[in-house]
Amino acid sequence: MTDAADRQLAAQYEAFPYPARDPREESKRLIVGSPSHLREIDHWIFGSRRPASQPLRALVAGGGTGDGTIMLAQHLAWAGRPGSVTWLDRSTTARRIVEARAAARRLDNIRFEAGSLLELPGSGLGPFDYIDCCGVLHHLPDPLAGLQALASVLAPGGGMGLMVYAPHGRTGVYMLQDALRLLAPAEEPPAARVEVARRLWKQAPETAWLRRNPWLTDHLSGGDAGLYDLLLNPRDVAFTVPALEALVRAAGLRIACWVEPVRYDPDAYLPDPKLRARTAALDPVQRAALAEAITGNMGIHIVYCVRAGDPVPEVPWDNPEAVPVLREMEGPTLAKGLPRDGTLPVTFDGLRVNLPLPRLAPAILQRVDGRRSLGAIADELAANGIAREQFWRELPALRRAMEAMNRLLIAAPA
């Protein structure tokens, strides 16, 4: 499936490996996000039922400079969990960077493979329990062929985390891409093209829609690699909610979760009862499409997928032995900062949503530490005069708010 655009894409990522990363920064912080956070994989792919002791075989297809690879490998290492992460990409420049990042962290659970994800069928790689493909499908000549290639090495019961561009939040990007096709033709060397793009951005008038789009920052803070990837990429296809769902379905998969779930719930933005009566008649894809259309600020879509024929295990929220965990939050700190009006304000790319919380939310959250089980938390509250029945009655309301934010999850069983 190699064509002129594909060859230009390969040259781009050799000249400007993406995203720009300095291995010396690894001592300062771990870059985290979605998809491929280990707690998200446990929760959304495996329903928090796959034992943590079972080795996880993961693939990061189109791994670039390694954000997803390093995050997942580090999470496995910190948790003392068995498994390995296979990084796959065509860029030798990106490989040098991710190998240096892994060395800086002394990670020995990463395997590096050179090649294209389109070559996975028959490659001998896999099968994999989890596959990450972040920011790749929208650059392929045939995204469906790419997704089918990934599915060919997915182990039974496994799943994928995908990220693709979304059109509405990228308002302004495609206009400047059109302009740069005229000013900096794709046949020119990448260095020359990025120099023209810098000049154009400095002189683009205030009416240019990208200047009015505060949700995209690659051209501002991502260096030359970010500028090139946003405005000079030779192939860039954005997917609406229905288009992405159709792509996933055509590959024999189904979406288990849109991240973050609350962003795709139109009722989070529409308090009018008459409108909610109409949203109630929509199917899940239509509801997500409505949320995308009315918010206008989604520049990407992140989804977790499983095989269409595989059941998604129900997360055991009613199991007293299940252990709740918070993603990148400390329970006591979160509980202390909760507003007293019974709601949790959340902002997604400038859009503010107030999520209702039950009365016991602070008492429960301050005890979520990744060790206490739901039953243990209920016991502690009972010792303080709060009936266990009240805990189990209010837990679903807390789950609806915090799980929808992709923040309160259930850990993998030991």
Write structural notes for this entry.
By secondary structure, this protein is of the alpha/beta class. It has 2 domains: 4-168 and 236-307, Rossmann fold, CATH 3.40.50; 324-410, no CATH class. Helices cover 39% and strands 17% of the residues. It contains 16 helices and 11 strands. It has helices at 4-15, 38-45, 67-79, 92-105, 143-151, 173-183, 190-203, 218-221, 223-231, 241-250, 273-279, 284-295, 331-337, 361-365, 374-383, 388-402; strands spanning 56-61, 83-89, 110-114, 128-134, 154-165, 253-259, 300-307, 324-326, 343-348, 351-356, 408-410. The chain has a 7-stranded mixed β-sheet with strand order 3-2-1-4-5-7-6, sandwiched between helices. A two-stranded antiparallel ribbon has the order 8-11. A hairpin with a 2-residue loop joins strand 9 (343-348) and strand 10 (351-356). Helix 3 (67-79) runs parallel beside helix 4 and helix 7 (190-203) packs across helix 9. The radius of gyration is 22 Å and the shape is globular. The chain starts with a helix and ends with a strand. The model has no long low-confidence stretch (mean pLDDT 96).
Q: What distance separates the N and C termini?
A: 44 Å
Shape: globular
- CATH architecture descriptor text of the largest domain: 3-Layer(aba) Sandwich
Oligomer: single chain
Radius of gyration: 22 Å
* CATH-level-4 superfamily name of the largest domain: Vaccinia Virus protein VP39
Percent in helix? 25-40%
Structural class by sheet pairing and helices: alpha/beta
Sheet with most strands: 7 strands, mixed
The spatial strand order of the largest sheet comes to 3-2-1-4-5-7-6
Assign the CATH class of the largest domain: Alpha Beta
Please give the count of helices.
Answer: 16
Rounded average pLDDT: 96
CATH fold label of the largest domain:
Rossmann fold
The percentage of residues in β strands lies in: 15-25%
Spans of at least 5 consecutive residues with low confidence: none
Number of domains: 2
- Beta strand count: 11
Query: H/E element string?
Result: HHEHEHEEHEHHHHHEHHEEHEEHHHE
Keywords: Methyltransferase, Transferase
Pfam families: Methyltransf_12
GO molecular function: methyltransferase activity
Domain Methyltransferase type: 61-158
